[in-house]
Amino acid sequence: MPKEVPASPTLVARGAAFSLDVWQNAVVLVDKPQGWTSFDVCHKLRNALTARNADGTKARLKVGHAGTLDPLATGLLIICVGKATKQIDAYVAADKEYTGTLRLGQATATYDAEVEPCEELPWEHLTDEDLERARERFLGAIQQRPPMFSAVKVDGERLYFKARRGEVMEVKTREVTIAALELSREAGSRDVDFRVACSKGTYVRSLVNDLGRTAGTAAYMLALRRERIGQHSVAAAWPLSELVAAAEAARDAEAQRQGLHAAPPPPGRLVLEKAELDHHPREGVLRLGGGAGEAASSAEQPCDVRDDALEAARQKLLGTIQQRVAERQGGGEAGEPRKQTVRIRRLDLSREGRSSDIAFNIMCSKGTDVDMVLHDLAKAAGCTGHVAMWRRERLGAYSVTDAWPTEEL
């Protein structure tokens, strides 16, 4: 890795040409795609920037984001790399601007479209004047209560853990500032587009919920996009795929300059130093309440597993674990099971409401039986389950984004 570190952070906006030196102290603007957590984006970029030192060890950089965006949201995510991570708090404190869409007449437990509506109220009677009167009450400094499904800590624990256990508690309000709030809709529509400029700590989901209640109905957030953080606009941000490609190119160019790359393998031969599986968020699905294969129909049974049970089971599987696998004999038949040591570096779960389909994102060591990991997860949560679908995203340094579709090969 380069030893020269820029004295001040370099702003890496879309299309900027850069060498790996820049990433020792960089602030990068990313347009986060829907379905990705902010952590996912940081992890993807960190992997793209990970190079080898002369002794063969990995030279990893610190990577952190300045302000979380929910998976359903898109838009500007500021990522600080290297020495620039010391400036994260300054970006977190900056004013933000969002655009989005809310739906009148319905409410959800999360205040957004992550779960199904749990309440229906009349909304047809609302006029544009009613919405305008409600809007005016949310301008300036206001007291806002964060949603129960949020990362706010109470008594040392994230609120969303308490919410998933079904706990009901009074969350303290806090002061935020709404500098601007614009509403627009087509005549008679229940879907209202909005633009809001707000201070640090504002939950737009809570703003939407409160706006609906003040107008005399319910409301939840259908879509959200972050347009601006401080002086930085999403118009200058990198699409994630383009950024990762540029970062990998800079990393490989530096490694080649230092002579750290081995000669390429012969055509048709794949050489891997270490194989890891990295599954794209929401591209793997664990189905609860059934077995796999031909026995699935007979094995299926109702299975209503709470989120806290899944979380407890997930925690047990993280880190280094012993996994039972069957040896293969001649003809492919399973022999006596044996134990192997594997490492689960990451296992993220998400689902809509109490759905039996659990989206998973797993990163694990070479040789891990992913089907067995998910089977054990369901069992530990008190249910049966099987992998209904999964997709391998990476092997070592090789990404599926560089792979040939079979029909084109």
TrEMBL record:
Q: Does the keyword Chloroplast apply?
A: no
Instruction: Identify the keywords attached in UniProt to this record, alphabetized.
Output: Isomerase, tRNA processing
Q: SUPFAM superfamilies, per this entry? A: Pseudouridine synthase
Q: What is its EC number?
A: 5.4.99.25
Q: Which domain of life is it from?
A: Eukaryota
Q: Identify the NCBIfam families for this entry.
A: TruB
Q: Which family does it belong to?
A: Belongs to the pseudouridine synthase TruB family.
What's the protein called, per UniProt? tRNA pseudouridine(55) synthase
